[in-house]
């Protein structure tokens, strides 16, 4: 989740090859928050005017909870408290305890996403030692923008390769092609969804939709399906997923020469939901003034708390799928080269391997 500048260049992207994946993890229902860690600190990452509360604070303040009437997870900004000048507003950032390796797909079914002046929400992923290991932004926006943007952020050497000759190309708005986090104020290689249903009020009024992120050796792809176009293959009881049946991706970063070698620039990813306020992106004067008036902090963060009535995620589920035969789940505390891993079989998930001294022993 980083700064991006919209350039508005439309072009074509090639889709990644389809692969069949089986479910390995699900975050849903009453236990949704069991698999996540709360940040529990002020936003010292993107200079937001926000405090990411602890798990206990999120529960007591009703900023992260499962709605008993829908069984959906709600993740929100405090919309009831008056905040004093020079203080920050409470909100939430959660990170999955497990990490997911190349050969994974994550599917997020959302009914509502945060929006409004000063609001900067994202659903994304990163490796622990950012930018080493890369970052994948599936959903991100600021203030009153009307379209979702997707991006990669990496070490130098990764780019979005455009392939207009591909037979599986799709059209999206290409904002920037250099994924290097040290270049262009860390804008990353950004793609904007042309659909007005992908963000904000229109997203909510349409019943939300489903975001799919494929993290594959052939490349990284993101699909978005508004509620009325969600395919049956993404239904809540689906235990396997064939990405070749999803159609053309909304955004695609193919691996290979001239693009981004996924094995070189990416490592297993933690999933993240967060909502910060103002900060490096939403609060940048040239960005804020595009869709909002006044001053980001003075008029919103410490202003009328009801301005944050729409600053919440309503998440039906997040499901993670893994490629058959690959160890795709790194459990909390696992370094990535030692410990117990999870391998995906043709029938489901198996606790499969113990790595000792660099040698994998199947169990």
Write structural notes for this entry.
It contains six helices and 25 strands. By secondary structure, it is mostly beta strands. The chain has one domain: Jelly Rolls, CATH 2.60.120. The strands form three sheets. Strands 1, 3, 9, 11, 12, 13, 14, 15, 20, 22, 23, 24 and 25 form a 13-stranded antiparallel β-sheet that branches. Strand 4 and strand 5 form a beta hairpin.
In brief:
The chain is mainly beta and 363 residues long. It has one domain (9-325): Sandwich (Jelly Rolls). The chain is built from six helices and 25 strands.
Features:
ConA-like_dom_sf, mainly beta, disordered C terminus, disordered N terminus, 13-stranded antiparallel beta sheet, 9-stranded antiparallel beta sheet, 363 residues, Jelly Rolls
Instruction: Name the overall outline.
Output: globular
- Number of separate helices: 6
Count the E strands: 25
CATH class: Mainly Beta
Q: Structural class given helices, strands, pairing?
A: mainly beta
| Strand-residue proportion | 35-45%
> In this structure, how is the largest beta sheet organized?
13 strands, antiparallel
Q: List the quaternary state of the chains.
A: single chain
Mean pLDDT: 87
- Helix percent reads under 10%
What are the segments in which pLDDT stays under 50 over at least 5 consecutive residues? 2-16, 350-363
What does the radius of gyration come to? 20 Å
- End-to-end Cα distance: 38 Å
Domains, number: 1
CATH fold category name: Jelly Rolls
CATH architecture: Sandwich
């Amino acid at each position: 989740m980083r700064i991006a500048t919209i350039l508005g260049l439309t072009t074509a992207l090639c889709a990644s090859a389809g692969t069949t994946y089986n479910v390995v993890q699900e975050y849903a229902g009453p236990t949704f928050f069991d698999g996540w860690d709360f940040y529990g600190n002020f936003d010292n990452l993107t200079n937001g005017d926000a405090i990411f509360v602890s798990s206990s604070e999120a529960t007591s303040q009703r900023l992260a909870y499962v709605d008993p009437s829908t069984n959906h997870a709600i993740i929100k900004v405090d919309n009831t408290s008056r905040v004093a000048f020079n203080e920050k507003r409470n909100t939430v950032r959660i990170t999955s305890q497990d990490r997911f390796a190349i050969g994974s797909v994550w599917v997020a079914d959302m009914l509502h996403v945060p929006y409004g002046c000063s609001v900067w929400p994202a659903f994304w992923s990163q490796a622990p030692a950012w930018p080493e290991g890369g970052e994948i932004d599936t959903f991100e926006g600021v203030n009153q923008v009307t379209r979702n943007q997707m991006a990669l952020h990496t070490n130098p050497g990764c780019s979005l390769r455009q392939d207009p000759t591909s037979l599986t190309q799709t059209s999206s708005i290409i904002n920037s092609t250099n994924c290097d986090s040290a270049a262009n104020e860390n804008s990353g290689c950004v793609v904007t969804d042309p659909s007005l249903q992908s963000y904000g009020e229109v997203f909510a009024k349409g019943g939300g939709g489903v975001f799919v992120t494929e993290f594959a050796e052939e490349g990284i792809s993101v699909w978005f399906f508004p509620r009325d176009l969600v395919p049956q293959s993404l239904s809540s009881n689906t235990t396997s997923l064939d990405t070749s049946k999803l159609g053309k991706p909304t955004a695609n970063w193919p691996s290979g020469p001239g693009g981004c070698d996924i094995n070189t620039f990416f490592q297993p990813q933690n999933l993240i939901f967060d909502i910060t306020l103002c900060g490096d992106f939403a609060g940048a004067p040239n960005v804020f003034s595009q869709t909002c008036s006044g001053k980001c902090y003075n008029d919103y963060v410490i202003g009328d708390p009801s301005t944050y009535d729409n600053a919440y995620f309503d998440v039906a589920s997040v499901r993670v799928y893994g490629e058959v035969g690959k160890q795709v789940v790194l459990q909390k505390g696992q370094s990535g080269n030692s410990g117990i891993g999870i391998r995906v079989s043709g029938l489901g998930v198996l606790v499969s391997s113990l790595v000792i001294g660099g040698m994998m022993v199947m169990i």
